User: Fold this.
Amino acid sequence: MKKLIFLAALIIVCALLPATTFTPKSLLLADSYMLSARGCDANYWNPALLNEEEGDIWVPVLNLGIYAGNNSIDVNLYNFVMRQEHLDDADKQLILDAIDERVALNLGGQAALFGFTMGNVALSSSIHYGAKAAFSEKYLELLLYGNGDGSQVYEFTGENNYLEALSYLDLTVGVGDIRIPLPETIPDIKFGFAVSALGGIANTTTHNFDGHLSANLDGLTVHQNVTQLAGAGGYGAKGMIGLFSEPVKNLRVGATLDNILGFIKWGLVREEFSYHFEADSLYALDLLEGTEGLYTSEYEQIKADPFTTRIPMEMRLAAMFKTKQVSLSADYIQGFGDSAEISRQGRFALGAELRPIPILSFFLGYGSPNETYPWRTSLGLGLNFKVIEFGLGIQSIEQFYPGYSSKGIAVATYFNIRT
Amino acid sequence: MRRCLYAMMGLMLLLGACDISKPRLPSWDVDLTLPLLNERFLVSDLVDSVNVVIGESDVLTITANGEASTPDFGEVNFTPNINVDELVFLSGIDYETTVPLLDPTGSVFLSYGQIEQGQLSFNMNLTDPNNSSVTLILPDITTPGGEPLTLSSNDNPNWQSVNLEGYQVGVEDSGVILNDLQVHLIISSDQPNGTPLGMGGIRINSQIGCDYFQGYLYNYERAIAGTYASIQIDYPEGFEEAVILQEAELYLEITNEIGFGATFHGMIHAINEDTGQERWVNVLDEFGQPFNVEPAELSGPVITGLNFNNGLAEVLQIFPSRVELVDGYLLINGGHDGTAGFVRETNRMFCAYQVDLPCNIVITDHEFTMPTPSVISVSAETQSQILNRLLDANLTLEATNKIPVGASATLFVGTSEQIDTSDPATYSFSKQVTLYSSEYEGPEVNADGEQILQLGLNEEELSIFGNPKVYVLATISLEPSLGAVIIHASPSDYIQIRGMLTAKVRVSEDLL
Assistant:
C-alpha cells in the first residue's frame, strides 16, 4: 500500500501539465521558443528559421525532455497530509480546495533520435510520448467524506474521468529560408515548411465514461459504463508552415501553423474494451439471499474498427526583441481542437535569454495558463561554445521556482553540435 | 566556466533539497450511508391458510376447523309390552282383533320398520287339537316377500317363539302410525259352531329393534362427539388484554343422513393452553333456542348451515389455542317436517364446524414485554471494529403504514441478562421508535402516509457492543384505537419499510 501511495504521490507532486508540442530546449523558455529555434529544433517550431544561423546536429539521448505533473496537489499539501495523524473536516476541505473539478495527471516527454541540417534543409527524428489521466473531484470527496446522509446523487462523466496516452515517432524534413518575393517596400519575409511522417507506437483513449452513484432510501444505485479504445501500430503525417520576418532591426516576428492535416491511423492492433456495471435499488438485506440477479456486470473486449487520431492544428504567433546580450520573446498559442497535447483555449508564453558573456546563457520563461494548462515558469542554463552547445533547464508548475508549492516539474537537457 | 559549474551545482542542490515526507496514511472519518432494506410486509403474508385466512370483505380472520359426528344411528328400539293371554277360540267363528303396538316410554311411534331383532311369542292351547285348528294371522307383520306372519297351533299347547328378524312391520312409506297390530283368527273344528275349543295368547314384550325405521321419535337423543380444533398462533403474552375482539362467528355445517328433523345441542369450549384460561358458550340461536337441523330426504342427505355468534366473542377473547365442540347431541322430536321420519341403522349426522375471529378489534393501551432478553454475541473482531472504527450509527426507516394499528417499541440494551425496564441501573441505554397507525393524523406522517423513524446510537452507546455479549429486551405498546378497527388483508393493506444505515466510520491505513 505504501508503494502505491508513494507512486501516486510521485506522479502527482513531481509533474506539470504542458499539453503541447515541445523540444527539450524549448522547456527552458516555457515554450516561448518559436523565434529562438534553429537548426533541427526549427523543424518543429518554425521551419523558416532552420537555416537562420549555422546548422547543427542533434546528439541522441542528450536531447531529452520529460514532464510530469498534476493540476491540484503540491509537495506542501502532500507533506501536510502525510504528517497529519488524523484529518479533520478542515483538513479535508483544504485538500478539496486544491482541486478544481478533477485531479488531472500528465506525463510525457520527447527524445531526439537524430537530427541534422544541410543548408536550408533539416532532417530529424524524435519520439513523442504523452499520457494524461483524470478522475473527478467527487471521487476524492467520496473517499474523504463518504456519501454522507445519502441525499447527494453523484454523476461522473468523461469530462473529468479519462485516460489517454499517445506515443509516436516522427521523421521530419524541413525546408526553410525561402524568401517570399515581395516589393522592396515590404520587409523580407522568409517562409519554411516541414513535413513529418508519423509512426504511431501506441494510443489509448477513453471513448465513453459515465457513472452514477446514489445511496439512500431508494436503495443503492450504481451505474458505470467505460469504453476504452486502444491501438498500436499506426501511420500518419502532418505538415507545418512557418513565416519569419524582421521588420525592424532587432525585432523579429513569426507565425506558424502546425499539424496541418495531422493524423495517425491505427490499424495494426485495435481493441475496444467495454465495461458495464449496473445495480438498481439494491439493499443490503437483498444480498443475504445471494447476489444473483441483483446487478449486471459485463466486460467485453472486441476488435475495433480502424480508427484515426486526429492531431488538431495549432497556430503560433510570436515576436522577439533580440540584442547581443538579451533576447525577449512572446508567443501566442492557439489550438483548433483538443487532444492530449493541444487545447482550443489560447495562451501566452514569455521567454528571455540573457547572455552576459557569449558562452553563457541564462534562460527564463513564463507560460500563461488555460483550462488544461497551468501556468509555469522555467529556468535554464546553457553553455555555448564554438562547436557545441549544451544546457539544462527546469520548469516549475504554478510556482515561480521549483519548490514545495510546485504542482509538477519538467526537466530538459540539450546537446547540439554546430556545423 | 567554473562559475557556470557552480551555478549548475547550486541548481541541483536546490532540487535535491526538497523534504518529501514518507508516504503514510492518516486516519479520517467518513459518513457512510448504506441502504439496508426495502420490504413490504403485506397483511396477507400472515395468512397461513390454516389458522389465518382472508375472510369476507378481505378481513383478516383467525380461524379453526373441527369435525364431529354422531355414531351410527343404530337400531330404533322400543319394547311394545304386548301381553294378550285370553284369546278364546270358538269353533267355526273367525274373528279379527287388535293388540296395541305402543312404546310405553312414548318415544317411538312406528309407521314402518324392518326388524333387526325381536321376538314374538304365541300360545294356542286347544282341548282337542286333533280335530280342531287355529290359524293366527298378523297382517301388519310381513316377511320380506310380503307374506303376513301366520301362526298355527301345530298341536303344541305351550308358548312358542317366532324370531322376527327380517320381518317388516307396517306399510312402507304409508306415513300411518301403527298404533295397533291387527290379529286375524281362523278357527276350524268338527265341533258345532260356537263350541269353545281352547284359549291362546300373543306376546311381544321384548325389545324390538328396527334397522330401518319410519315413524316418529320423541325426545330421542343421539350424542355427537368429535375432534377439537387447534389454533397454532403464538400470541404475545398478554395479547388478550391488549385486544378486545368485537366479533366471532361459528359456522356449523351439518350433513344429516337421518330422515328426522332435530335440534342441535352443544357447547363451544375454548382453552388457552398457555394461560390455562377456559371458557364455554352454549350453541344457541339469537332467541336462545337450539338450532334446528333439517332432516335428510329419501333421495339423500341434507346439509344444514348454521351461524352462531351469540356470546362467542367473549369466549374467544382468551385467544384460545384449542377450540372444541363439547356435550353435543341431536335431539329428535317428531318426524320429517310433519310427516313420518325415517332412519337406517347406519345413518349418521356429520358436523363440520369453523370458528372465525375476524380482526375486528379494539386496541387498548397495553405493553408487551419479551419474557427474556435476546442475546447478541459479538465476535472479538467485531468488537474491535466497533470500538475503533464506528463512531456513531443511525438507522433511518421510512415507514408507510396502511394498517390501522400502530405501536411503539422500546429496546433496552445492556450487558447483563437481568434487565429491569423500570430500573435504569440494569441496562445501559434504551431506544424507542413509534410506528403510527394508518388512522393517525399528525405532523409525524406526511401526506403520502410516510413517517420517518430514527434509531441513532452515539459512540458511547456503540461501545456497549464492544462486549462479548449484549442483551436486548424489547417492550411493545400498541397504539390504543379510538374505536373498533378492522384489519383487512387486501393487497393494499401493508406496512412498507425502507431503511438505510448511516454510520460515521474511521478509516485508517490498516483498514486498507
Summary: The CA atoms of residues 282 and 318 of chain A lie 59 Å apart. Helices of chain A lie at 2-13, 39-45, 75-83, 89-97, 137-145, 284-287. The longest strand of chain A covers residues 251-282.
